[in-house]
Predict the structure.
Amino acid sequence: MSEDELYSPRNPWFSISVGVTAAIAVLSAIVGLIWLPLLQPDLKLSGIWDAICSAAGVPNLPRPAAAVPPTFKTSNVVVTPEMLTRQDQVSIGRGATLAQRCAICHGPQGVSDANSPNLAGQYAAVTYKELNDFKTGARVNVVMSPFAANMTDQDMRDVALYYAYLPRVPSSQLNPGLPPPAIVVTGAPLRNIPPCGSCHGEIDIKAGSPWLGGQSAVYIKAQLQAFAAGTRRNDISEQMRNIARQMTAEEIDQVARYYEAQP
Amino acid sequence: MTSETDHSHDEHGLGEAVAARIERRWATLSVVIICVLVGLAAFFGIYHATMPQGRVETADPTTLHLSGEFVESNLGSALEADGSVTVRAIGQQYSFTPQCLVVPAETPITIRATSADVVHGFLIEGTNINTMLVPGYVSDLPIRFNAPGEHVMPCQEFCGIGHQGMWGKVKVVDQTAFRNMAASKRRLTCVD
């Protein structure tokens, strides 16, 4: 039997097998794209065309449902891992000038013993986000809020890049030999607490999380307590409140003292 | 000589028939086993598994907190006009928000969840809810709890170095208790 005869409609085996295969394909398409979707009442399909599109995976915009608006200001910063990671000399220069008014609390080199955050070497995204949150009112502080209120978006970027450019200076409490508490290295998985180090450096860094080494223990403790009590709510989608709520007073003390002693 | 040949021929024919019979029986048995296994897989797949979602819905993971249904104040359980309940939640490194979901028993519930950063897992122990939260997409799952109780809700997809600390809780309460809670608040959670 030559090839011509094998692949020819005159060969009944060929025409039957091709016909059966085609019939299965058409039948499966009808079942999968039309019949089964229409059997699902939850999908609320508007017709055959809608059924075909949804089964084929055409993306839908979420149903417009009235969302409950927030009763307090939440952060409106969009944090991405690439945010403010590029050094920009002009920006750093402008930031240095603008930062002179910050020096009284944060120190001329971005470090002070005033229990205000040390900013030298802090990630630019962090400083920018906090300034922005102070400006919008998502975070409130009697000293910082008025300072941030008059800053433009560019001012905040410049100051953030300037502080990120400054070298980190260890605090006067430096003690790198201090063993890390369990909550920093392993967290408390049974209480829904990941290790602090999985976001704040040492193990891994999550975009938008501050570097904590050398920060004042008083400051760290106050912020964790504020997150736990819900008086500070500018962490996007409760990422820090969820953790601080589960921490014991002792653990808060431990991490505050540990991070203060780190470089 | 002839008789000998006939004899051996007879024996050979008998052996062939026995072999064919045994082969047919075993073939039938294995076909039955395959059919049972396929049937089992189909039955449990259809009646007990989480069905693939019928619709693909998208949501920008970086702006969930700015607008739309996943803003902080809209997360939690909402009592709908038709008596059903919609639960909205997000997964992020390394927690679920809300940390504790509260839902009524014997009520049709729709869970809508998404991720704000990387792929997370969404699993409610003791139920057939088990899916992924993929950044950019909304996972929409129907569920019904038969009795009040507590279920743990661990992230079951490795999402980073703090993955083992990421889990939430689902608290199922009776319908009256839920309605009483819903009378005073529009979005319910059981976060303490």
